[in-house]
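Hey, weird one. I pasted the ABC-2 type transport system permease protein sequence into the form twice and got a warning about non-standard characters only the second time. First submission, copied straight from the form history:
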Amino acid sequence: MNSAILRLGMRSLFGRARVWLMIAMPVIMLALATLIRATSEGTMDDSGAEGFLRVFGIGIVVPVVALVATTTLINSEFDDGSIIYLLTKPVSRLTIISSKAVVVLAAGIVFAAVPMLLAGFLLVGGSSHVAVAAFAGGVVSTVAYVGIFTVLATTMKRSIVGCLLFWLLWESTISSLLSPVKWLSARAWGTAVIQHLATALGDGKPGVPLLYAVLGAVVAFAVGIALAGQRLASMTISEE
């Protein structure tokens, strides 16, 4: 990690207009949770709350926040040429990309996983494990998405389109149609964590074992950063 790059990353992330979309997602989720709570008698049952947090939290909020943060911090710097400033410094390019990924990961946890925890408390209160399970599932999915989106952002010409297609086709469509794909899905890993840790199992058994889901996310993050660092290392200033 490089403290200067971390500070620059935070400044760059929150200095662009896209950050408002990243902020809007948790606000919408908390507003919906509040509305559901207000229109239901007392607290929502564990199964219904878990379903909402899995479908809207893991399925929409987490990938959108991770996508916006990753493309803002990495893709935008490639587009406007500001990445050249870092590439000319005597800093390992793996350090550059890993420092940026840490900033993105922190943003994902703050703007996706923590709001899922709060939404869980709004829906079911503090008497069940659903809220904590939602937070854990949000963290696991965020870790995986950051690794995946980071490598896509550094290897594709139209990385925003590539990240969107990956989310919409692979995560949202193919993984729900083909059962074996759940073993290679960031969404399925986060969902499995919620189902394992929550008191209610919702509409079915967890798709993958808990340990596999956690390890899968960590491996996706590590491999994604390694591949992105390798790609960055192979670049020349003229390519930018």
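That's the output from the first submission. The warning seems to come from a hidden character in my clipboard, not from the data itself. Residues 3-234 form one domain.
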